[in-house]
Every structure is written in C-alpha cells, then in structure tokens.
Amino acid sequence: MAKPALTDAIQDYLREIYKLGLEGGRVSVTALAKRLGVSPASASAMVKKLAALELAAHQPYHGIELTTAGEKVALEVIRHHRLLELYLAETLGVDVDKVHNEAERLEHALSEELEERIDRALGFPTHDPHGDPIPDANLEWPNGVRRTNVPRASVTRRG
C-alpha cells in the first residue's frame, strides 16, 4: 500500500518542529503553534496526525520529536527552500530580500529531478544567499556543520 502524499501543511509542521528542536530544549505544542501562527488546538491536532503517520512522537510535558522519517522530510523541505532561494537570487536575479517568499511558494512543488538539476546548475552549493547551510542530496549538512550547530539565522527564518 502506498503512503499518502504529504500535504504542504504537514511538510511545514515537520520543518518547524525540526528548526525549533535546533534551538534547544523540548518542542512544545505551544511553541509550534506560535511559530506557525495557528491556535494551540490546531497545532495539537496536526501533531496527532504526524504521530499517526509515524513522522513525529509527542509525549505530554516532554515535547515533540521527529522520527527518522519525519526528520528526512523536514530536511528535504529545507533543502528545497534554500536551493530555490539561491537559484532565484543567482540565476534569475531576484533580490535576496524577496527570495524567501518566492521559495516558500515553490518549495513543495519542486520535483526531485528539478532539485537535482538546480543543484548541479549551481555547482552543488553548500549555503543559500543568506549564508545558511544547505543539506546535500543525501540530506547531510555541509562539512563542519552538525545538526546541533546550524547557524542561528537558519532556525529563525522559515526556510
């Protein structure tokens, strides 16, 4: 049986859980709701859905954690976003201050084939136009960047 397609909302939640986890401490439903600009009830419902899909685990008072599968999706969304930002800035000349919103709209629609072509066309970049690291095709951070020390700029912006 095929797995259900992951909606844009599911991908956004996974990305934000990942990034909140990088900031340290446990990821609470309240913090997640605040980050995404939704009600705590909406965030709680989505966290339950993520748990049912085995993409995250939530224990009350212990926070939300991504499963390996959930982390993979989050990293893929981050990779798509940052590659798109760089492509828009370097290839199409979009102002760096405007690439985030454009990449936000495109990140969920990017096919793996187009991602690979963009990556190759840009020379397999390691950082986006804001200086944030880009996970490689294997979803590994560039040399010298560990999951626990991704620059702060990468966890405070949405990409």
What does this structure look like?
With 159 residues, this protein is mostly helical. It folds into 2 domains: 8-66, Orthogonal Bundle (Arc Repressor Mutant, subunit A), CATH 1.10.10.10; 77-141, Diphtheria Toxin Repressor, domain 2. 51% of the residues lie in helices and 5% in strands. The chain has helices at residues 8-22, 29-36, 40-52, 68-90, 99-106, 112-121, 153-156, and strands spanning 56-59, 63-66. The protein has a two-stranded antiparallel ribbon. Helix 1 packs across helix 4 (68-90) and helix 2 (29-36) packs across helix 3. The termini are far apart. Residues 148-158 have low confidence and may be disordered.
In short:
Helix content is 51%, strand content 5%. By secondary structure, it is mostly helical.
Succession of helices and strands:
HHHEEHHHH
The percent of residues in helical segments reads 40-55%
Do you know the CATH topology of the largest domain? Answer: Diphtheria Toxin Repressor, domain 2
Over all CA atoms, what is the radius of gyration? 15 Å
